[in-house]
Amino acid sequence: MDNENTLRRLKTVEGHLRGVIRMVEEDTYCIDVIRQIQAIDAALNKVSTQILENHLNSCVITAIQGTDKKERQRVLKEITEVFEMSNKV
Amino acid sequence: MDNENTLRRLKTVEGHLRGVIRMVEEDTYCIDVIRQIQAIDAALNKVSTQILENHLNSCVITAIQGTDKKERQRVLKEITEVFEMSNKV
Amino acid sequence: MDNENTLRRLKTVEGHLRGVIRMVEEDTYCIDVIRQIQAIDAALNKVSTQILENHLNSCVITAIQGTDKKERQRVLKEITEVFEMSNKV
Amino acid sequence: MDNENTLRRLKTVEGHLRGVIRMVEEDTYCIDVIRQIQAIDAALNKVSTQILENHLNSCVITAIQGTDKKERQRVLKEITEVFEMSNKV
């Protein structure tokens, strides 16, 4: 099941984030903290990509093959929106 | 025609980029140059989003409603790939 | 103390991330999960910026005003590196 | 002189961008156009990083070693700002 994989990755990110919190508590060198936050960012991007892939291969196929044109438009618009946002964060 | 809109935006970006080249030639303050480059980045992201939107509403619909399963997989994989890359640039 | 502010933000992000994990466990709609992950990304970027600001106003000033040229080069190189990476994640 | 290097890179990007404009004029496959735009983004990020590096090793050192505290604050604030923006574009 794909959710399992997503969950496992998110829990790894959670552990990573807790490590960063400890680093700040222990006054670790700023640049090292920033680098770890950037690593978390990269890991989250991978999770998003994986979720999008699952979404395309399930909901999107169903919506596009379906007869409800509005639903089709909605689903495609959402993909455009998350793509646009991904360029910004 | 949608290409017209994309072309117009890209030509605006081209003018913007030429302006940045002039700024560097005239030894403009570094930070101002960086800010203009970031503005170009943002404009290019908008162009990409617009192209993706057109693509979803044409090729992707056709591929997903078509009978060629491999083609469908290919088209969806491409979207995942440009999404993943958009998180990196 | 600035660490307090950074810590508070990071703990907020941790709570947000735990919320996303719950969303995945409860099979929330994919796009909504992606949007929340993008919100976490944006929050982490703010934390990084804040940490960098503190760093510039402490370690970087000390290093540049100091007499150790190698240390100065090291500190400036690190800033270039995290800037470069920030364009990628 | 470092400007030469920056200029050369920017002119390469200009050529690349003109190529993308031609691709759109010739109705090239959308995804290929998006990939080329993402490559331009990545090239621009490298130019920005190079400009920042020069800036840190000239203006920033001068400002921080100088006696004008306001100027020092201004220069450091600018770096924070372009870093923050780099996370968004």
How would you describe what is shown here?
Four copies of one chain form a homotetramer. Chain A has three helices and no strands. Chain A has helices at 2-25, 30-65, 69-86. In chain A, α1 (2-25) packs antiparallel against α2 (30-65). The longest helix of chain A is centred in the middle third of the chain and has 36 residues, at 30-65. Chains in contact: A-B, A-C, A-D, B-C, B-D, C-D. Chain A binds chain D through residues 87-89, and chain D through 87-89.
Write the SSE topology.
The structure is a homotetramer of 89-residue chains.
Chain A: H1 2-25, H2 30-65, H3 69-86
Q: Distance between the terminal alpha carbons of chain A, to the nearest Å?
A: 28 Å
Number of strands of chain A: 0
Largest sheet of chain A: none
| Helical fraction of chain A | over 70%
- Quaternary structure annotation: homotetramer
pLDDT < 50 runs, ≥5 residues of chain A = none
Query: Which pair of chains forms the biggest interface, and how many residues does each contribute?
Result: A-C, 41 and 41 residues
Structural class of chain A: mainly alpha
Overall pLDDT level of chain A: 95
What fraction strand of chain A?
Answer: under 5%
